[in-house]
Write a structure and sequence with these properties.
By secondary structure, the protein is α/β, with parallel strands linked by helices. Helix content is 38%, strand content 21%. The strands form 3 sheets. The protein has a 5-stranded parallel beta sheet with strand order 3-2-1-10-11, sandwiched between helices. It is globular and about 60 Å long. It binds magnesium ion.
Amino acid sequence: MLPRLVAFDLDDTLAPSKSALDPTMIDLLVKLLGVTEVCVISGGQFGQFQSQIIDNLPEISTDNLARLHLMPTCGTQYYRSDDQGWTQVYAENLSDDQKARALGAVEQTARRLGYWESETWGPILEDRGSQITFSALGQAAPVAAKVGWDPTGEKKNALREAVQALLPDLEVRSGGSTSVDITRQGIDKAYGMIRLADLTGVGLEDMLFVGDRLDENGNDYPVKVLGVECIAVEGWPDTAALLEDLIPRYVTV
Ligand SMILES: [Mg+2]
């Protein structure tokens, strides 16, 4: 059975973290849109989808582009393309009080644990509307620096646990390699996938999810727990190889 919808994580699944998709991957995504529905779901915000994916897409038919479902910030925002371009279908934001408490708790805890860096690439804290994000080295840190900051994930997990204890009514989750995301409770990629099933009418059993962090501490793990068929990759070349195999199977059916 071929999936009626293929959903992808973005960073380290379709592209290196915060980087544009390789032309090979763009080409494969366009081919996949020709045969089935496609979703990209990430903790990142829409601006990243724009610079990493949308800005690099070639001219493709409106029908094919309409098969692309974009879910920034774990599906608390949802974007579709139509005649008017990319449109936000909905956004579920944190309240001002929730934002203020989240920003305060994560800064205070990072400073206490000695994780509040003075040399960063852009701001450490970011208000993404539906999500507060802590990025240890700043939003624009190069991949090599991020990999070196916390190779075992120990710092990130310690920060996550300590902040969660301060914010019992919110959810604190490990994001990318150096980031921690704070959202309303119950917001993770599983939440986004359930919303996606509602919005598209495609059942979870007819979906395939591809991600690089399907391990127990990873931000893709909730999708696996949800029971969606998942394939783990270690970077976009793995995903490209998977699509090279998958796409021709639609054509020959
Ligand atoms: Mg990822």
